[in-house]
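hey
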């Protein structure tokens, strides 16, 4: 792969960047450069926001299109992205090490599904409602498009998480400036080309590849009306502070340290559950915010469950992300691998026991690989049980009874995902209801487009997905009718 771009997608056009600074993208599997793009500067962000502002304020523009026309344009974009899915998939996998099979399911397919789903909602959801008043007269309640959205996206699922934002925003009639992470900018060019081809009007979608400084400039920009952010809790706190000062609406999807609760009746036969367990605990090399990386196991079955997870992790195929059979690819960056290795060392230092993995795979001299790693004898107070590692590392924590399991699950700063594994779905649901989290699965886990997704506590504020997410991009106006 050798992809080089010289312009930025701003105002529906390919424009020259204001500086010669560039971002070089490196393959996580080979450590070789695979492309480069201009690095957007503050002046480029200003131009992108101005273009989004003009597109939003145009009295005949996107915000004023009939919802059915916006829906049709979104469906055209979905069609182009579907056609170009494999290109997106290859770029994402090469950049961040996501196994290509995972990338096909998520990065290739999910944005297409979301665009079609929100296009349908744009068509079917009324934006005006007349309510009879209690003091006589009626009120017209309107849901108006909120304005210019700054969408800031991390590197772990660059296209899917961008679509979590742009699909409802476009459906609502907003315009966007999207800032991808520097690690994953090549896929944003395929997306920009798809936008241009779809006939979505100039300036409705603008893209500024860059780091946190341009991200911070976008967050505080006076002409931005809303920030939608996915990323680390540390960055989310700082963005939340700025938005608080500016009284700017903000949605924050942040980190997680979710619990996978194995109930004492669960018959975990790897033949049957390995795939679901994988998605719930190790998807995308552990670089997924919702993963249940704290596995809570009943003390009476602890040894058996440690053995099961050891076998499960040991059987995973580690390899180049672009190999169809790879289950665990490399960490996205050298820094990310160092971070994961620091946590593994900390876990050992705190007295937890590595039952498998713990190092770099012997047969990989290139790429930022870490072996799938299982820690047994972890105390929930250990750093590896409290902080997000963002790598293929699971911590197995024993519990005494169901109350203890719920207490441990909730003894976390975070609350984003989680699972309950049981042979009794009703019992599983009862436990799921007691866990403080934004989402949780019983014997399965995967974000569902039709249901709200997001976190409580340090995992964020607000929800994406579902019909609820349209409201993130709408402003309510009540018109009292005399
Ligand atoms: P990060 O917070 O460092 O960066 C995320 C994005 O924000 C990048 O585009 C970055 O350039 C930008 N950014 C960073 N600081 C900023 C600031 N002060 N102002 C504006 N923009 C800023 O996170 P990361 O390391 O790229 O991503 C991994 C993190 O994302 C993990 O903690 C993970 O849990 C979280 N995540 C959360 C969800 C979710 O839905 N809750 C989904 C995926 C990832």
């Amino acid at each position: 792969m050798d992809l080089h771009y010289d312009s930025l997608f701003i105002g529906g056009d390919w424009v020259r960047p204001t500086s010669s600074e560039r971002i070089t993208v490196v393959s996580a599997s080979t450590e070789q450069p695979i492309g480069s793009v201009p690095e957007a500067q503050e002046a480029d962000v200003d131009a992108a926001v101005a273009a989004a502002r003009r597109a939003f304020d145009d009295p005949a523009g996107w915000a004023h299109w009939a919802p059915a026309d916006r829906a049709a344009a979104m469906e055209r974009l979905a069609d182009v992205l579907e056609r170009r899915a494999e290109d997106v998939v290859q770029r994402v996998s090469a950049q961040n090490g996501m196994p290509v099979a995972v990338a096909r399911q998520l990065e290739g397919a999910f944005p297409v599904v979301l665009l079609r789903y929100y296009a349908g909602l744009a068509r079917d959801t009324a934006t005006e409602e007349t309510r009879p008043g209690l003091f006589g007269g009626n009120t017209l309640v309107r849901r108006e498009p909120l304005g210019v959205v700054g969408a800031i996206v991390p590197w772990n699922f660059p296209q899917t998480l961008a679509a979590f934002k742009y699909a409802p925003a476009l459906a609502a009639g907003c315009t966007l400036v999207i800032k991808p992470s520097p690690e994953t900018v090549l896929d944003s060019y395929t997306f920009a080309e798809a936008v241009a081809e779809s006939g979505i009007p100039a300036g409705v979608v603008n893209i500024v590849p860059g780091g946190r400084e341009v991200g911070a400039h976008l967050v505080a920009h006076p002409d931005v009306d809303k920030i939608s952010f996915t990323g680390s809790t540390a960055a989310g706190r700082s963005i939340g502070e700025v938005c608080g000062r500016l009284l700017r609406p903000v949605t924050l999807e942040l980190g997680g340290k979710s619990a996978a609760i194995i109930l004492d009746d669960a018959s975990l036969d790897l033949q049957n559950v390995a795939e679901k367990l994988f998605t719930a605990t190790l998807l995308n090399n552990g670089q997924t915010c919702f993963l249940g990386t704290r596995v809570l196991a009943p003390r009476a079955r602890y040894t058996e469950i440690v053995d099961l997870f050891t076998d499960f992790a040991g059987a995973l195929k580690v390899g180049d992300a672009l190999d169809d059979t790879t289950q665990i690819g490399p960490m996205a960056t050298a820094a990310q691998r160092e971070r994961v290795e620091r946590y593994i060392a900390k876990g050992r230092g705190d007295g937890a026991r590595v039952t498998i993995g713990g190092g770099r795979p012997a047969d990989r001299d290139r790429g930022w690989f870490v072996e799938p790693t299982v820690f047994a004898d972890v105390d929930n107070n250990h750093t590896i049980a409290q902080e997000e590692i963002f790598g293929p590392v699971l911590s197995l924590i024993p519990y005494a009874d169901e109350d203890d399991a719920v207490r441990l699950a909730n003894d976390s700063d975070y609350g984003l995902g989680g699972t309950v594994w049981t042979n009794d779905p009703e019992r599983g649901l009862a436990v799921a209801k007691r866990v403080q989290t934004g989402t949780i699965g019983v014997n399965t886990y995967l974000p569902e487009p039709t249901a709200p997704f997001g976190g409580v506590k340090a995992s964020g504020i607000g929800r994406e997905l579902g019909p609820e997410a349209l409201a993130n991009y709408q402003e309510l106006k009540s018109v009292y009718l005399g």
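The chain has two domains: 3-254+459-481, 259-449. Residues 259-449 form a domain with the Aldehyde Dehydrogenase; Chain A, domain 2 fold (CATH 3.40.309.10).
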